[in-house]
Amino acid sequence: MEILTLSEIAKAVGSTVAIDGNITEISTDTRTIPKGCLFVAIKGNNFDGHDYIQTAFEKGAKAVISERNVDGCNCILVESTRKALLDIARYYRSKFNINLVGVTGSVGKTTTKEMIALVLSERFNTLKTTGNLNNEIGLPKTLLNLDSSNECAVIEMGMSHFGEISRLTKTALPTMAVITNIGFSHIENLGSQQGILKAKLEILEGMDGSAPIFLNADDISLYQTSYQLGRETITFGIDNEDSDFRGLNIQQFEDYTTFTVSWNGNFKDIKLPAIGKHNVLNALVSFAIGTKLGLTPDEISNALSKYKSDSLRQNIVRKGEQSVIIDCYNASPDSMKASLMVLSQMLPKEHGRRIAVLGDMLELGEMSQSLHSMVGDFVGQSKADILFCYGVEAQNIGKVALNYGKEVRFFTEKSELNKTLKDFLKPNDVILFKASRGMKLEETIDYIFGGKD
What we know:
This protein is α/β, with parallel strands linked by helices and 453 residues long. Helices cover 33% and strands 21% of the residues. The strands form four sheets. It has a nine-stranded mixed β-sheet, with helices on both faces. A six-stranded mixed β-sheet has the order 16-17-21-18-19-20, with helices on both faces. A four-stranded parallel β-sheet has the order 3-4-5-6. The longest helix has 16 residues, at 277-292. The radius of gyration is 24 Å and the shape is globular.
């Protein structure tokens, strides 16, 4: 972060208080607070940063953004410290004339963000969202890491309710945006897929009318929308022949995929160290954005060849005598289907079996039973040999998979799952672990394999 004066900050949050001094860091956590910083007292569900204002000053904070005055402390008073953090980040971001890509969608945001940043970093100094810090606390913290050396930024935007993407995009001010897909994530709060589409399209609210948006043409909701936005719309896809950037000649191997990008009569062969059609889509939009910003096909291809998956996101590793697909970060019907496709595409060695260990998908509300049943259909249509279901809702996956003749085992206790699965595995098996983050299937992986590759 570069220098901001406290008077600039006061003006950005709508305060008339006059406090002298400069700061180069902003903190919301007194456990890691640096001396001379600005402390923002955020209220959370289980804590209130206002309770730690005195501690912040004792540790060297220069001033605080607060919703109430604290005697003896330099306080800039605001109605909402959460809004103030966004206001500061928006002001700070506006000081930088850079290309900023906003990324949202039901699934695939983080992987897409990583691939785009990898491509842009081939030529430009690029800031990106760390991990999945994509909410109203994480996004402003990322923006506040901008400095004059940055030429591009790739910012992930997540949400669970209407209005959240609107606030994030009005803070980040994207010069271009990506919507990866419209699935079922957070449908409990948004009511329907049309509601999810409406919430994702809020990303346009922080963009200039001339800023382009990149949409997945294989997603029927997004493709139909692409003609209605009144701005430059660039599409990417595999199945849709009308895609501006299309993936052709896709070939899957054990730990990489090759395909050809077709655009404007041009063709470029790509080798991507990841498998699954969804990852080809992620690479396609990265290729499209790189092309838009002037990178050569060779530069983009070279960047994509260096992609590495996150340890909990469809990471394929060899553990002992088995191959393991670790995908324990989140889960929705769309991402379940994608992971099952990856499992189906892998070829076990002699006598090896394809085993799917699937846990509950959370936050699906009244549609939970029907959406878990939908995943049961995906399992039935996949090449999985055996299904282990873990959790109450996951029982619905197994019940439908049985109708396809699949071998299914049901568990509601993790300890029972762990012991049974460990005894069940044989050399050369390929095992997929997939569930929502709250199910903590990585604990099962650690139990079986000792946490070692």
